[in-house]
């Protein structure tokens, strides 16, 4: 407003000088000039004024539109004559987040409580008021939006200490798992609505999406909850659901899944075979040829050479596991990868003979070798091949997939045998001729 105050005395000066002979025309021109100057000054502060007005208007519009799409619902109200307290649970029935509520209990002496909790859509807040007497009416209102709800349905007579209204089944969501590694994961869920009564929650989980046969009970929860599960298998996909139930019903969240990471049983990158016992022939860890990293296990022993490990490695194949290993032969020879059983000549093996284009699943028992399944992939000398074994939960079923280094599947065979069904061992039996045939083994992973 300072602009106008500045202009007025100036105009008066001009008017007074008209007595000295300024023509009406010049006076009119001056008046127009002053008007334009006034308009220029006005425009300097007017934009702010207009913006302020616009902001206030749009705030009002926002308030009105939130009020139109918002509502509060008293889920239940309980009066406890022993404590003289009233518990009130109310819910945000609209889509927009609300905060700042007022709860009033009307009776002989009205009691009021302000609740600054923030409620998302369908979320519930619970408050307690010390009324020292049964209220006639409970009102929950919003402090700025014209929305409220009332509850008056207290039973007549004082025998009942609780009047309930509208307890409904809870709503729960399954959230993604966190902290997933090769053996552990933390499952997460969220009670998005208690339905007016805090629900008990649990997770159902398992490796078979069609039957989640493990249950972890957690107890009463409101909001986010989680549970760490341990002892999982590496490189495995698990499925889980969050569930919540109260006296009015139950809800199950969506099915989520996660995949545990793999474990390198041995990549030989420490450059030694100190975790192994060589019971026949010789083996060394060399760094000239490797599939992954710098080092690989190697033998060029004549005839048969045996090596195995039962302790010191990161992990061992166990029933239920899928494990893989890379094998390479540079001349006519064979490599058998042993697992289960007690060691060389007494375990299950998968066998590769590049010179014969042969891959087999065999069982060795008391020095007899039985071929359970056989395939004829095309195998070349000097190439790495991936042998992947899926070992059934009971230790009987075995599946072998052979792939080349491009990932192309060359063989896929299955067998079942119950002779060796416990894990905890990995090793090799390898045959060469008498020409120092080089054989390599690297990157055992499960
Ligand atoms: Ca290696
Ligand atoms: Ca080692």
Distance between the termini: 80 Å
Please, how many helices? 2
Bound molecules: calcium ion
CATH superfamily of the largest domain: Exo-inulinase, domain 1
For the biggest sheet, the summary is: 8 strands, antiparallel
Q: Calculate Rg over CA atoms.
A: 40 Å
So, CATH architecture of the largest domain?
A: Sandwich
Helix content: 10-25%
- Kindly provide the name of the CATH class of the largest domain: Mainly Beta
Counting helices, strands and paired strands, the structural category is mainly beta
Give the strand tally. Answer: 30
Low-confidence stretches: 1-20, 156-162
Based on CA inertia axes, which overall geometry fits?
Answer: elongated
In total, how many domains does the architecture comprise? 3
Give the averaged pLDDT, no decimals: 87
Would you tell me which CATH topology of the largest domain applies? Jelly Rolls
Q: How much of the residues is beta strand, in percent?
A: over 45%
